[in-house]
Predict the 3D structure of the following.
Amino acid sequence: MKIASVSIFLHHQVNVVVQMKLLFLSFLILRINSFHIISHHNHHHCSRRAFTHRQDNRNTIINISNNNQYSHSFSPSSTKLKGNIYDEWKSDMAIVDTLPLDEEFVLECIDEIVYSDFGSQMFGVHDQTASIGITGEVSLYEISGPEVILSLSGKFWHTRSYVLGRIAMYLNARMPEITRVSIDNPDELQDFEYVHDVDTNEVIEVIDRRSPDYNGDRETMIYQGIDPDMRGPFPGGLNGEFKLIPS
């Protein structure tokens, strides 16, 4: 009788242990599933935030398909927005979204410079610069591997090497694949054209390719040892009030 009682008791204890193990296992499964759902949700949410950030900076339209794969297309950027992209980068060398190197993006980045606040003092497409004789333009000549070759034409108030340098820095920031930005014809970088005598090779004429020094400030700055490129053609410049010492 005692043996039978012990046997029943042990059988009951085993059942209790098995049930407790089953409950513990069920609890673990629920915790794992819950963690997986939360993690998946957070990952999906972060991915959408990352793409939305790119949309703000690159004016990109994001489309999310039913299979959760992302695709994107580019919408036309406004002139004002393009200017802001370059001006913000120039002001504090802010990190900008990078682009693959191809003709479309090179042209887009050139427009970002030309139609920026900075570009409004450099290129002849703006009313204010055109009014003082600035006709300078920049165009893409070709892309040769990782090298971008540009062409400069017209009259610039700034030195032509400075114009090319500003463009080159920005193109490289936007498209790190670029290893070199050059000019199609090296003569296009010359601010003066020297005419030589055919017989003696002496310089008989110097042609100024720059736009007119409409108010005399450029020559005054050169005389005072100030780099005119740092201020630009207009007294206020782009960095606030810029005063010259009276001659």
User: Anything to note?
Assistant: Confidence is low (pLDDT under 50) at residues 1-14, 27-83. The CA atoms of residues 25 and 31 lie 10 Å apart.
